[in-house]
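Hi everyone,

Forwarding the result from last night's run.
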Amino acid sequence: MVALLFLSPALLSLAVLRLIPAGSALWESFFHKSLLESSSVFVGLGNYIELFTNQGFLGSLGVTLLFTVLVNPIQVFVALLLAVLFTKRSAGSRIWRSLVILPIAVPPAVSAVIWSVIYRPDGLANSFLSLVGIPPQPFLTSPQQALWCIIVLLSWVGVGYWMLFLIAGINDIPDSYYEAASLDGASSWRKLWSITIPLLRRPLAFVLVADTVSNFLVFAPVQILTKGGPQGATNLLMYDIYNRAYTLGDVNKAQAEVIILVLLTVIVVALQFRLLRSDDS
């Protein structure tokens, strides 16, 4: 009873801020607002059916899945690489670690503005490319490059954050394992492959799943830099939901789209539990 009393503020906040809005969105996704009658009409799964027959939504879903497939391995691999490097006892490692972590303190909107200046035709990126003889690139105005520009921005912000979890995981590995491997003549690569990565499986599973969920919810960089363009190349689901609700005024379909996004998130969370369960076994 005492434990429930202490938990009641958190449980109340969870209900008010999460569960009730989620239930409301699910319920309203089964309705369609009639402009002629100024009332909501129950359409069942009609909004979902219309979404999956809408080329705009299917394109947004495809871009989101492609974005997730690209950005997650890149961020996790770079975070793991930096975590391994920065746990080595070498001169200057703490300074470099601080520099990598620094972007975490910058709000996403501010980071997007900074990179919008970098990606300008006369910005820092093209200035650097000109030094190595590469012609100016269109970056955000190119359908082939715009999504990669968003990936670079999000990796600049996110890699340091995920690196912290992996550094903590590496520091939890007993030094005796590495000492025994050194006595057996194991190389640094063999230690990484046979000791670090297997014993880092749980933090890696968490980082992979949490990073995936985070990238499903990307909005601010797309809103500030590309607004879903060019030609829908960066029209991620979160931005499509915003556009459908506040630009097109189709709130019910936007809520149906939210439910679809939540279902994708639930699938990823189920994957997390699967990874953790197999690790325990």
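The chain has two domains: 1-44, 52-280.

Cheers,
N.
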